[in-house]
Amino acid sequence: MAYAEKDILEVLETQEALRERVAALGAQITADYAGKEPIIISVLRGSFIFMADLTRSIDLPCTVDFISVSSYGVGTSSSGQVKIVKDLSESIEGRDLIIVEDILDSGNTLDYLRNVLMARKPASIRICTLLDKPERREKDIQADYVGFNIPNAFVVGYGLDYAERYRNLPYIGILKPEVYGG
Ligand code: PRP
Fold first, then answer.
1. Is the Cβ–Cβ distance between 150 and 132 less than 8 Å?
2. How far apart are CA 156 and CA 167, in angstroms?
3. Which residues of 132-154 are buried (b: 16+ CB within 10 A; e: fewer)?
4. CATH class, 16-153 region
5. Which residues are known to be catalytic?
6. Residue 55, SS3 per DSSP
7. Along the 182 residues of the chain, how does pLDDT read in single tens digits?
8. Taking Cα atoms as reference points, which of 133, 130, 139, 174 lies closest to residue 151?
9. How many angstroms does the Cα of residue 46 sit away from the middle of ligand 1?
10. How far is Cα 154 from Cα 16, in angstroms, rounded to an integer?
């Protein structure tokens, strides 16, 4: 995407790397959930591209649903306060859930979501995140499936934004600090 090239410091994960890793995650989930019919839940908005690619690499009967949350974080990190903006459409009672996120950072979002969804009595919950920044964690939460562990840099693309821009980049890039005043 020519419009964004001047703003990107470095490409962290190329389109090819993303394709390979997402296919591997899909294959792993396919093996782990053999004989089951999981419900795959996309946490909007950042996970929409990962969700689209991941679900197409899962060779199982499955259903999809979407939930949108917002956090009251200031600037580039989330706070502990999260709320549901758009809830799931279906009941999850007795279902095997796979929550799909683009990035696991402080863990505040997934900690909140996991507790809310657990109260609805699913059979199981697992978390699949494309990106993980383990050193930023504030809550005791780990993903069951991780695409890439990444350093503590401001990343955009493949669904991830800065001020709602750059979600349509086909790769994951590190944003130049001067773009976000860093
Ligand atoms: C991002 C990301 C996760 C959350 C992770 O969402 O999609 O939901 O932050 O951060 P945490 O682990 O510190 O809670 P964001 O609030 O940027 O919204 P978006 O998905 O609409 O981009």
1. yes
2. 7
3. bbeeebeeebebebbbbebeeeb
4. alpha beta
5. 105
6. helix
7. 999 999 999 999 999 999 999 999 999 999 999 999 999 999 999 999 999 999 999 999 999 999 999 887 555 555 668 999 999 999 999 999 999 999 999 999 999 999 999 999 999 999 999 999 999 999 999 999 999 999 999 999 999 999 999 999 999 999 999 999 98
8. 133
9. 7
10. 21
- Domain spans, the chain: 16-153
Count the alpha carbons within 13 Å of 145 in the hemisphere toward its beta carbon.
27
Instruction: State the CB neighbour count (10 A cutoff) for residue 82.
Output: 20
Question: Which of 102, 135, 160, 167 has most ligand 1 atoms within 8 Å of its beta carbon, as the pocket-test mutant?
Answer: 102
Ligand 1 mean position, distance from CA 121 (Å): 24
- Asked whether the whole model's pTM tops 0.85, one would answer yes
CA of 96 to the centre of ligand 1 (A): 23
- Rounded distance, CA 93 to CA 165, Å? 36
